[in-house]
């Protein structure tokens, strides 16, 4: 679906409001929206909500052979997907620009900053290393995808536990989670992206732009910082020209914000760890807010299946017995066999049909076919008598044959309606073919 | 028109195996949780790509009153957050709730129920991932809310005619619970108190 264009009124309203230092949701210039982090039951699964923007992050790992030029390092793979549910404009195949930009930024932020110790992912140098794969799915787009995605990625990586491995000489033993507790990844620092939106040629800036604000912005500056105030990545897009004081000021603001966000992440991780250790309930089940009116839960409910067997019996006895399927394969030559008889091509058989309608004789096919045949025969003759007088198709292939309702129901079928004939002709031609074969 | 549904099937809560008596794991759902689509729901239960999509689509086509909205495309996007068994049933439930949340007119609500038959013929409703893997046959049914009629069934494994009818009857009994859950969650949402 195409994105609904922003009306001029809305654009002017937003820009005027920003000039007066007002934001639509009442935030201040440097305020972030509320961040909520929830974890799933598996290690490495988390959902991050930045206001209404929602990103799902999932980490998985696999043992693979390493890259040839980096034989002692593990492999990191990042993938962000913009799901169609996030915004109507995100159709598969239509989002390439934005997608490439976001993916590239995420990779630079997480891979080039070396926040994950890839040497520790090596199991056997040159042969087996861990490949860590981070999949991010955008579930709802309300602005500032990159911040939410970077938070989700780093939280998922911190939350993830990989299976324990031990190497004895040439033997590599991979332990299941039941045998040995899985091991967390070794993470040096947590880089988090902070976005700054610029308006009116760099005169005004806003932190954490919402979707409306993103639509009217002139340019975006993304700075990835960690809590030690080290800049990991910086990217400016949109063609705005910034003064160096502005960039420095933004980096200072980013430092402050990231410190707050990192604290929030640590607290969330610790809470989850505590709940798991104490054996309490964890997972998305618990994170659905209980008091919210749009959320509802029901406990485990027993289902009474005592009368299931009787009901099943009744259904079975009331049902018709299944038709006997008799398949007598006829072997023509080695490698070619035939089961049953197929549908005969009835084109060009109009002249023969008169002679063969009288053959109602015995069959050596399965007995049930007779029953079926007569049923269908009755149906067909009904339709024949009902539809003979109706003038139907405009088809050019109509042949001019006089309709004789009672004698040759088959004739009527082939001429008038084309669609309904599949069932009927399949039975009567069986007789014809038998005749032909004896002739051969 | 877009309805989105997020699905969790989770088993993080209790790890005790389900006994021979049938019971459904605990459910939770949240509606209208995404701001961009017209309707959205998240359905949590307990815990071959294109064919699954086709099955869900066929079920929806059977109940959605498409004639009231000609020239309209209804897109249903499902995102699996985690899978702990009975995934297809959870997908169907989430789809139904999302369609209700979006206000799409339907002839009836529908729900999905999964049954597993293990090697000695015991029927287990709403199986966990482990039970599904060890089962001899896994059957999923989509049932409608008016008469518990069968809308769609997809099965995997070996089972007899009698077992099929038993599973279907059990699924019909279980679907009552699911429909009660729908009703209560919608009542809660739309009630004035």
Mean of residue pLDDT values of chain B: 82
* Beta-strand percentage range of chain B: 25-35%
CATH superfamily of the domain at 14-278 in chain A, please? GHMP Kinase, N-terminal domain
Radius of gyration of chain B: 16 Å
Q: How far from one another are the termini of chain B?
A: 30 Å
Q: How would you describe the oligomerization state of the chains in this entry?
A: heterodimer
What is the name of the CATH architecture of the domain at 14-278 in chain A? 2-Layer Sandwich
Output mean pLDDT of chain A: 79
Query: What's the N-to-C terminus distance of chain A?
Result: 63 Å
Order of helices and strands of chain B: EEEEHEHEEHEEH
**Under the CATH scheme, which class of the domain at 14-278 in chain A?**
Alpha Beta
Profile the largest sheet of chain B.
4 strands, mixed
Note the run of SSEs of chain A as H and E.
Answer: HEEEEHEEHEEEEEEHEEHHEEHEEHHHH
Overall shape of chain A: it is: extended
CATH domain topology of the domain at 14-278 in chain A: Ribosomal Protein S5, domain 2
Helix fraction of chain A, binned, reads: 25-40%
Biased composition (Basic residues) (chain A): 430-440
Region (Disordered) (chain A): 335-365, 395-440
Organism (chain A): Myotis myotis
Biased composition (Acidic residues) (chain A): 349-363
Map the helices and strands:
The complex is a heterodimer of chains A (440) and B (193).
Chain A: H1 8-19, E1 35-39, E2 45-50, E3 53-64, E4 75-82, H2 96-112, E5 122-124, E6 128-140, H3 145-159, E7 161-162, E8 165-168, E9 171-174, E10 183-184, E11 192-199, E12 204-207, H4 211-216, E13 219-225, E14 231-237, H5 244-277, H6 284-287, E15 295-298, E16 301-302, H7 308-318, E17 330-333, E18 336-338, H8 350-356, H9 367-387, H10 409-415, H11 423-439
Parallel strand pairs in A: 4-6
Antiparallel strand pairs in A: 1-2, 2-3, 3-6, 5-6, 7-10, 8-9, 11-12, 11-13, 13-14, 17-18
Helix pairs in contact in A: 2-3, 9-10, 9-11
Chain B: E1 2-9, E2 23-24, E3 27-31, E4 39-45, H1 50-63, E5 75-82, H2 87-102, E6 110-117, E7 123-125, H3 129-134, E8 137-144, E9 150-157, H4 161-190
Parallel strand pairs in B: 1-4, 1-5
Antiparallel strand pairs in B: 3-4, 6-7, 6-8, 8-9
Helix pairs in contact in B: 1-2
